[in-house]
């Protein structure tokens, strides 16, 4: 089969949630470069969400936010071909199970599990009707390597997302929709850089030493560094393309070797 890599997503309409910064922005830029019409979402309108990228302001942790996105895309574009559920994050306090309230758990599951579930439910009927579409769930290696002291609800929600993604693929792949999971390790985003600066300042060390301390806390990264957002975006760009047309139901870990088990 012959593919035009530079324009392989021409005429495809793609949504990247949480696409205003970090890996989400890199993914949105990558799909745009491949010729797709790209829509991103975030709570607040970013100063620069990319030339040619459409933006919808919405809080996807709430049902009305996901409904707004589904309705606007259906009204403005008529369909969706690619859905990258990238939104995620943890804002829970450290300290283990004892400091976590029901609200902490509920907020984490709303953002990291139920937001993608609702968006899938909103767009899948159209994908099934057209017998074509790709859904990517961005999970995390914390589904396998949970950090109980700081991100327990986040890790549990991402583990649930991986399970859900596999189950969904079994249901909808026979109907023409591919479903895949991408589980990154540590990504060097602007928020990661700020975190290293805070660690360095509070501990009286250099940012390089702070970075080493984070790598050590993860049990080491054989590759020796965090991933760049563009590296994650390149994997997603391949998975949503026709080149990956036989791939579905699989989790792809991109972590520089952090997870040491099979």
UniProtKB/TrEMBL annotation:
Pfam annotation, one family: adh_short
UniProt entry keywords in alphabetical sequence: Oxidoreductase
Family according to the record: Belongs to the short-chain dehydrogenases/reductases (SDR) family.
Record's protein name: NAD(P)-dependent dehydrogenase (Short-subunit alcohol dehydrogenase family)
Taxonomic source organism: Dyadobacter fermentans
């Amino acid at each position: 089969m012959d593919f035009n890599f530079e324009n392989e997503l021409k005429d495809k309409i793609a949504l990247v949630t949480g696409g205003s910064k970090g890996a989400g922005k890199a993914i949105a830029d990558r799909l745009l470069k491949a010729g797709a019409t790209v829509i991103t979402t975030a709570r607040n309108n970013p100063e620069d969400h990319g030339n040619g990228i459409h933006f919808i302001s919405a809080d996807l942790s709430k049902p009305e936010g996901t409904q707004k996105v589904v309705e606007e895309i259906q009204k403005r574009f008529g369909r969706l071909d690619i859905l990258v559920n990238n939104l995620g994050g943890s804002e829970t306090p450290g300290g283990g199970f004892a400091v976590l309230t029901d609200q902490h758990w509920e907020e984490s599951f709303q953002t990291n599990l139920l937001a993608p579930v609702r968006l899938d439910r909103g767009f899948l009927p159209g994908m099934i009707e057209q017998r074509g579409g790709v859904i990517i769930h961005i999970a995390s290696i914390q589904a396998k390597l949970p950090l109980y002291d700081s991100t327990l609800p986040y890790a549990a929600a991402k583990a649930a997302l991986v399970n859900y993604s596999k189950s969904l693929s079994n249901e909808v792949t026979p109907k023409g929709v591919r479903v895949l999971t991408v589980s990154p390790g540590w990504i060097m985003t602007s928020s990661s850089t700020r975190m290293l600066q805070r660690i360095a300042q509070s501990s009286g060390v250099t940012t390089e030493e702070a970075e080493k301390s984070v790598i050590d806390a993860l049990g080491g990264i054989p590759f020796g560094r965090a991933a760049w957002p563009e590296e994650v975006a390149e994997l997603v760009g391949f998975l949503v393309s026709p080149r990956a047309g036989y791939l579905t139901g699989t989790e792809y870990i991109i972590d520089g070797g952090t997870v040491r088990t099979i």
